[in-house]
Amino acid sequence: MSDSYDIKNIKLAEGGRRRIEWADQEMPVLSQIRQRFTKEQPLKGLRLSACLHVTTETANLMRTLQSGGAELSLCASNPLSTQDDVAASLVQHFEIPVFAIKGEDNETYYKHIDAALDQKPSMTMDDGADLVGVLHKDRRDLLDGVLGGTEETTTGVIRLRAMAADGVLGYPVIAVNDAMTKHFFDNRYGTGQSTVDGIVRATNILLAGKTFVISGYGWCGRGLAMRARGMGANIIVTEVDPLPALEAVMDGFRVMPMEEAAPQGDIFCTLTGDINVLDKHHFERMKDGAIISNSGHFNVEINIPALEKMSVEKTRIREFVESYTLSDGRRINLLGEGRLINLAAAEGHPPSVMDMSFANQALSAEYILQHGEELENRVYTIPEAIDRGIARLKLDSMGIQIDTLTEEQKKYLSSWEEGT
Questions:
Q1: CATH classification at residue 228
Q2: What angle (nearest 5°) sits at the alpha carbon of residue 212, between those of residues 82 and 263?
Q3: pTM score above 0.70
């Protein structure tokens, strides 16, 4: 057992191990990578500090990195996403230092990030860029020892690209989020299903017949719209970008400003990565009993301080439902404290999609060790060869074969002489 950790209860470990093993059955790509890593030890000597959601799927990524020879330290990337039994199993059964407790306060959250950085990492692995932010603001003495890092989320990539544009990013970072095997599948199918799961678990409401307002029609918003429509909800999409707004129209959804959607919606979910997407003037127009939630990385998409100020009473109705009563008697129900509802009230993405996302993480770590010294201090898209290789491994694991180009077809595609 690791002698350095901060978790809820080590006695939960056995249950956590069973759930980790259950998830592993749905993660065949990562399993294949783990087998190769065990033989080749490509990460030997790597000190990797990770700030990720501490879930069963993440546990299998940690096992894979450890099998490749990496020394690990793990903290939570969200105060409500930790699965305490998984954290306990990682400590007891895999001897990985874990600093994560579900429901930890803000002070503890950042104390845990500091603890994960205490091993003086040579690589970072982030989900939202909080660890990178702390490293650059408060632990700059460690920067020289970092070869590179990876980032899992849209929100984190936005933050890191802003850092690079300002010339303050201290080392190269691979945007795992930009891999097609990540955002095509994890964001669309994973977020779509798990967000519906979180909302339904938190509320036990029927989606059929409800008006469901989805803010943001990126890959996550597309996935949620697809799944909610499949369960019978009437979808409204709000957007600021004309291209995804037009796509939403062509996909058969109503598109309008949030100001117009606010009085119509029964359920709201934000997935934008921006601040105050649901704001005071929207709350003022919402119907009694409106349900508001967020599936973006940070809990800033809903202006919770404004909602608190408008309210005359706040009541905890269910474990993940807080009802705010306004001065005119209307009630607005906030789910999961405005945090990622799919992880706050449910279990996050199914392991079969995280299989591809975490395969990208593992192979990106290997790539940085091999090529880190050649890279500049900026954000890189994941190499296409890694992305396509993961897709091929996933198809193989599903027993699906595809065609290959003939030499004649390759020649045709690389030539320009032949026309009509």
A1: 3.40.50.720
A2: 120
A3: yes
